[in-house]
Amino acid sequence: MASSLPLGDPAPADGVLPPQAALDAEARSFSLYAHIPFCSVRCGYCDFNTYTAAELGGGASQNEYAQTAVDEVRLAARALDASGVPRRRLSTVFFGGGTPTLLPAHDLAAILKAAVGEWGLAPGAEVTTEANPDSVTPDSLLALREAGFTRVSFGMQSAVPHVLRVLDRTHTPSRVPEAVRWARDAGLDVSLDLIYGTPGESMDDWRWSLDAALASEPDHVSAYALIVEEGTRLAAQIRRGQVPDVDDDDHAAKYEVADAVLGSAGFHWYEVSNWARSAEGDSPDAGRFECRHNLAYWHGGDWWGVGPGAHSHVGGVRWWNVKHPRAYAARLAQAESPAAGRETLDDATRLEERIILELRLAAGLPIGVLPASSRHEVAGLIAEGLVDGPSAFQGRLVLTLAGRLLADAVVRRLMP
């Protein structure tokens, strides 16, 4: 079951934002996130806002979803114009879910076309869709590339059959290299998502998955520790003793292995859970394979989130849509904003979020943004080996490998 939405202030039906949203907007990047809330099956570990066909119920149609999303894109353009936010070309577009590629390629193309029609794409813009390896074909990937997509992120998760079964994944390990090859043939960059720490996964299993991912020669790898969310089927299985619980020490050991294996293969970490293939030498493409859409989030850029349950952020104003596709479609059918609530972040909250997000990046956090009370912690963090000393002396806090393993604890130490 998907987690609940946060509380917040009421959001107006026309979607117009408070004046703060327009301040210095031209200095910030602008992105679009499109949430496609459909899955063929619900994975046992997932608490995302997604729905199988049986869960949708009446009044919500997968076949009509693309037009509903297009309606929100057009409402977004009107609302931003009415809010005084200048039009900026999209730096990145990201289709997530759910499984976006459960929709026909022409539906995804229609949503992208509407967004480009309203705002345009910046030169070299990154346009990504998530996909399951068994939800694509050579023809569908080629159609996406022809529509303007530049990148696909496959949910590989593991290369070990018994691990995939615990995660309720529907693809077989052999499908991943096949799907990657099709994406390459279509001219798309490729990212692979992995999960480590699944109950029953040995260290040899994890190494096998890493090696299998690298054998497909992706451009980017994300590796996430399995988090057991309350309300999921996996949480119930652990509670009943059907599968063992996850283990923090196991997570840490597998993270260290991932960093070593990926680093040896020529991938650099640029965010705690993300590694990108490095360009040779001093190429201007050195950061080309990093996920620029996620970097926009981590650097506090602006984005509009389309879809049920999607979150948005413009100039310190954050809002979130109603969760169910039926309620979402009903709002837009009345030409009303689907926003369920919103909040305007104060300076203290924005600083806290900047510390949380930028500290996770290899580029680090500028020490100068910290209040004096937090700067007093820096020397101790260096002495404990959690923060890189030379980088700190140059004015930036960069986590060491040990610091990445304890990133949440470091953040707590630095909070004002």
Task: Give your account of this protein's structure.
The protein is an alpha/beta fold and 416 residues long. It has 2 domains: 19-298, TIM Barrel; 347-416, no CATH class. The chain contains 17 helices and 14 strands. It has helices spanning 53-56, 65-82, 105-119, 138-147, 161-166, 175-186, 203-215, 233-239, 248-264, 292-298, 325-333, 347-358, 372-375, 378-383, 389-393, 401-405, 407-414, and strands spanning 30-36, 90-97, 121-131, 151-157, 189-196, 220-225, 267-271, 274-277, 302-306, 311-314, 317-321, 339-344, 365-366, 396-397. A 9-stranded mixed β-sheet has the order 7-8-6-5-4-3-2-1-9, with helices on both faces. Strands 10-11-12 form a 3-stranded antiparallel β-sheet, with no helix packed on it. Strand 5, helix 7 and strand 6 (220-225) form a beta-alpha-beta unit. Helix 7 (203-215) runs parallel beside helix 9. The two termini are 35 Å apart. 43% of the residues are buried.
